[in-house]
Amino acid sequence: MLVRDCFNGTLFGSRNLPNPAAMGSRRRQMLKSIRNPETGYPRLRRAAIVGTLLVQSLLVLMAGRAAAQAVEPAPSVQVRAAEQSPPQNSAAASPLTITFSDALERATANNPQLQSAFTALGLAHQEVVESRAALLPNVNYNMQFLYTEPSPHGTNNPIFIANNGVHEYIAQGNVHQSLSLQTFADYGRASAAQAVARAKSEIALRGLAVTVAEAYYAHVAAGHKYRTAQRANEEAQRFLGISEKLENGGEVAHSDVIKAQLQYRQQQRDLREAELGMNKSRLDLAILLFKDFTENFAVVDDLGASQALPLFDEVSAAGTRNNPDLRAAQAALRQASRQVTSAWGGVLPTITVDYWYGIDANQFAMETPAGFRNLGSSAAATLQLPIWSWGANFSKVKQANLERKQAVVELSAAQRTLLGNLRSFYNEAQAARAELELLSQSSQLASESLRLTSLRYQSGEATVLEVVDAQNTLTAATNAYDDGQVRFRVALANIQTLTGKF
User: CA-CA 20 to 30 A from 397: which of 101, 124, 189, 439?
Assistant: First the structure.
C-alpha cells in the first residue's frame, strides 16, 4: 500500500498532498517493522527502494519543467518595446560639414589663448576710460552731521572752539578738478597700451590661423594617406594572389610568395597606422573647433584647390603696412615715451580746483528760524609744488628713460625680423609651390611604374623585389604629394601672419 500510494502521488504528478494523520500512522508502522527482527530488514529494503523512486521522480519532474521554460519564447513586452521605440532623428545623426572658414571661426570663439588676448585688450580699453575720466571734473554730493557737547556755561556754544555749533548739518555738492602734466601723460600712456594690446590680439588671431591651417589640412592629408594605404593594401593582396597562381603553375619560386606575403602583412600594418593617424588628427581638430567635444563632423577637402602666391613686392608692402608685430613695437615705444612724460609730471606742480554748493548750518533747512538763507557756495584753488622727495621723483624719470631706450631697441629688432621673415616665409611658399608639380609628376610616374612592373612580373621579366619596390615607391610618392600640399597651405598661412589676408 505504501509503495502504491507514493508511486501514484509522485510519478503521475498529483498535486494532492497526503493526509498528515495517514503519514503519521505509516511512519509508526515502519518503525514497528524495523524493530521486529523477523520482518524489519525486508521492510527496510522496501522503504529504501521507495525513497529512491521518490527522489528520481522529483528529479524527472524538475527537469521537465526546466525544459518547458527554456522552450518558451521571450516575453512579448520587450519585443513590443523595441518595435514601438521611435526612430532616431536623422538630422542629429548626420555629421556637420565644416569648411576652413568655419573652422577658423569656431577656433576663434573657443581658443583660450586668443580669448586671453581679447581680455587683455578689454582691460586696456578700460584703463583708457579711467585715465580719460581723470582729465574731467568729478561731481560728488556729501552729507554730514556733527554733534559737539555744549559749553557748561549754559550757552548754546560748542565746547570745542573749532566747531561751529552743537548741531552742525552739512549737505553740499562738490565739483573737483585736478590738473597736472602727469594726468595728461597717463592718458597718452593708456592709449598707447591699448594699441599694444590690440596689436597683440591681432598677432594671436593670425597665429591661430596658422594652427588651424596645420590641424585642418593635416586631417585632410591623413584622410588621403588612409585611402592610399587602403589602395596599397589591396594592391599587395592582389599581388599575393598573382604570385600564388604563378607558383601553382610552376612559373615562380615559393620565395616570391613569401615575399608577397611579407609585403601584404606590412601593408596591413601601414593601413592600421594610417587609420590611427587619421583618428588622431580628427581628435586634434575637434579639440580646436568645438566647445562641447564631438567627433560627428566632416571637413571639406579643398587641399587640391589652387591658390595663387602674390609677388614678393606686394607681400613686402603689405607686411610693412599691416604687420601687427611692428605696430606693437611702435605702440610700445609711444607708451614708454608717455611714461617718461608722466615721470617728469611728478616733479612739476599740480593744480587742484574745488567748488562747493549747499548748506553748512546749525539747522537742516534752507533758512534759519530768523529767516536767513542757509544755502551758499564756496570755491578753493590749490597749487602743490614738490620740493624734496629724497630723489624718488628723479629716479622714476631715469627708470622711464631706460624703458624707452629698450623700446627703441625692440622696435629696431622688430623691423629687421619682419624683413627677414618676409623673405624666409615667401621663399618657403615659393619652394613648396614649385615642388608640388614635381611631386604630382612623381606620383603619376610611380603609378605607371607599378603597372608596368606588375605586367613584367606576370610575364616573367621582373622579380618580386622590383614589384615590392614599385609598390612602396607609389605609396611614398603619393604621401609626399599630400605632405607637399599641406606644406604650401601652411606656408601661405605663415605669410599672412605678417601681411594679413591677400
Answer: 124
